[in-house]
Design goal:
It contains 5 helices and 4 strands; from the N terminus they run βαβαββααα. The protein is α/β, with parallel strands linked by helices. β3 and β4 form a beta hairpin. The protein starts with a strand and ends with a helix.
Length: 143
């Protein structure tokens, strides 16, 4: 397992001191879906950085909080998850959540995409939100 965290064009590490806890959490959630964590890169970046990726690879011309590229093989999860810290902060304010809670929600959202869940319809989006909530309960943010 090689779950790595990177900073692309930002200087402050949003998960400083939490990496081991997050790795265990992601592994736990993945195992519950009978998936093994392989090589996953989680890249924290700015809105502008993620907008360029969105335009270049998905031909979307808008800001987003997360983009996931899957390189899965069989039941082994592998991929790159790009997360805009700017958008996470805006989401946290909009949804009246803490920055960490929104960041972890977006992280697990990317993992759920790797596991095979989509959010391209209202029904799938609602299901994904339920799965995110269940995963966040396992992380136990109060500890």
């Amino acid at each position: 397992m090689s779950l790595l965290f990177h900073l692309a064009d930002i200087k402050t590490d949003p998960i400083k001191g939490k990496k081991n806890k997050l790795k265990k959490w992601i592994s736990l959630v993945s195992t519950e879906f009978k998936k093994e964590v392989g090589d996953i890169n989680i890249i924290f970046c700015s809105n502008e950085y993620l907008l360029k990726i969105n335009q270049q690879f998905l031909n979307h011309h808008y800001y987003t909080d997360v983009i996931t590229f899957s390189y899965n093989e069989n039941n082994v999860l592998a991929g790159d998850i790009f997360i805009s810290i700017d958008q996470v902060a805006a989401n946290a304010q909009q949804f009246k959540a803490s920055f960490d809670e929104e960041l972890f929600r977006v992280m697990i959202h990317g993992i759920l995409h790797l596991i095979g869940f989509d959010d391209d319809t209202d029904h799938k989006r609602m299901h994904m939100h339920v799965l995110e909530d269940e995963a966040l309960e396992k992380l136990n943010l109060s500890k």
